[in-house]
Amino acid sequence: MCPLPNTDSTEERRCLERAAAGDAEGWRSLLAAHHDRLHRMVALRLDPRLQGRVGSDDVLQDAYLEAIPRLADYLRAPPLPFFLWLRALVACRLSKLHRHHLGTQMRDAGREVSLYRDALPGASSAALAAHLLGRECRPSEAAARAELKLRLEEALNRLSPLDREVLALRHFEQLTTAEAARVLGVSEAATGKRYLRALLRLREDLASLPGGLEGLRP
Fold this sequence. Notes:
The protein has helices at 9-20, 24-45, 56-67, 71-76, 82-102, 125-133, 142-158, 161-172, 177-184, 188-208. It is mostly helical.
């Protein structure tokens, strides 16, 4: 059995080599190590108008099938760490689905989170707000939750696109600082500082809105 990939790149490469040679267990081990974060990325960025037609699992399965015949080429000259390479394939698949199903009805980029250097569909402020609030509340709390969600959306829309993207990558997709830096094309130090500043600005913007931080988690 192929060991699960971890911070030891030697183990991950061994799994990659076995997967490229057709070993299904090696491929399953690789996916098991990265599937949850990829699923969060798709769930965050999949346009809600596609719900019922396309699911996060569908996007991932299509991307995984596309990745398998490319493993040998990837191993010869890896352009990125494996997780980021696989994430890029998932992003490409997601972008194609958005163009195919939505076309000219794509979101207004001026009010959405957008990737700094890539074509991955952005996470809307509505999606970010929903993830910040967590699970659905009881019916008796629905009105208060809706008010909080609108307040969060307004605060998120006040942030710069890059600040919102750093929040999406680090806080929601749970990329490491190093991974987020590679995606954004900036240094790790700049990414870490940008993330902390974005959190501070979000809190300040929330505090300046009617209702302030009332009802929100500390």
